Amino acid sequence: MSTIEATRTNFIKRFFSDSLYKNSFYLVANRGLVVLTGFVFWMVATRLYPVDDVGLAVAFVSSSQLIGSFALFGFDSSIIRFFNSYDKSKIFNTAFFVVILLSALGSLAYIAGVKYFSPDLAIIRQPLYATVFLLFTIALSVAAVIAQTFIAFRDAKYSFIQNLLLTLRIPLLVPFVFLGCFGILSSTFIAYLAAYAVVLYFLGRFLKVSPGIDTGFIKMSYKFSFVNYVSNLLFAATFSVLPLIVLNLTTKADVSIYYMGYTVGYFALQIPLALSTSLFVEGVYGESLKKSLKKVGALTFGILTAVVAFFFLFGQPVLGLFGSEYVAAFDLLRLIALSSFLYAGYVFFTIILNMKMRTNYILLLNIIILVLIDGLSYLLLPNFGITGVGYAYIVAFAAVDLFILYLIKKWGWI
């Protein structure tokens, strides 16, 4: 073995022996896989399904994500925050079954009221479509609980395996074309079932999976969970509502174009989010937060620089893979990618707030983001089209970062 090869081998060994870097690698790879398969999934969908069906499917997926945010009830944060100080099996089982119950109730409420707040989606009230939507939403919500549990074990590779199995949804698009927009949801739901059959087996090697809700864990984590729940709900609502705003102010075709631009640009936003999760886990296990923050911050900046440069250089041909009409989202894609640098400051600050149990400030930050992004998008869409949403991202995250600097100075952290 040459000196260069030996050096490279030693570097890789040191990299994966550090739990922060190892978890970070799988988390970033996981996010990349999600974005890549999402890209391919929607690319295939746009080729097989009419643009109006894709637009409706986007609206339904966004609605499911919004309901899923309700159903999580802050457990996605609490699973990690208390995992090293409470019975792991009780934490998982409680989160798993509470989320199933809440996502089912949320879906039923959405189906019952959809004709009042979004008449264009009233087709979901038909029994077959209502069943598909209900099951899809439950599957989407539970996936987050399972993924967070693997991450809390400091073994994010199993979360990666889960999303790798979800690539089955791509070939499943073909046999469900006859269902229209609900064929897109059905293919994804079946892929989730296949993934669960595998990952729950792996999960059973770490803890005991059984029906039951531990009231002790709920009482202990209630305040932390609830504030994070409301905060996460507001944050998820910010992005889940956007396709509905675009639908109401423009056309179904514009929703499709917006969503494809967002889907591609979403990867840049996922870099700081993935790495901040690794930072959170390390803090819970007692590692130095300051030291970990420096390591993760440098890693984040390096990866983001490469990703944003790629989107600026090759964003148009990438969007063109969906279809020539989707190149119209290029300006939106560039703005979303640029906003990821500003978004990183917000994400890392919320991790520090969670570690210090100052969750009320996370709630305040997410209220600001909701008001600015959705409010500015509503104002800018009529004049700038879907690119106006990108401007809203930049302004909102810049304003939040300035507010964060004010808080840091006020608290004497710098």
Automatic annotation (TrEMBL):
Question: What keyword terms does UniProt attach to this protein?
Answer: Cell membrane, Membrane, Transmembrane, Transmembrane helix
Q: What is its main location?
A: membrane
Taxonomy-wise, where does this protein's organism fall, top ranks first? Answer: Archaea, Methanobacteriati, Methanobacteriota, Stenosarchaea group, Methanomicrobia
> Has UniProt tagged this entry with the keyword Amino-acid biosynthesis?
no
Q: How does it sit in the membrane?
A: Multi-pass membrane protein
The name this protein carries in UniProt is: Polysaccharide biosynthesis protein
Does the keyword Repressor feature in the UniProt annotation? no
The signal peptide stretch is: none
GO terms for cellular component: plasma membrane
Q: In which compartments does the protein localize?
A: Cell membrane
Segments passing through the bilayer: 24-44, 56-75, 95-117, 129-153, 173-203, 224-247, 259-284, 296-314, 326-349, 361-380, 386-408
Q: What is the protein's species of origin?
A: Methanocella paludicola (strain DSM 17711 / JCM 13418 / NBRC 101707 / SANAE)
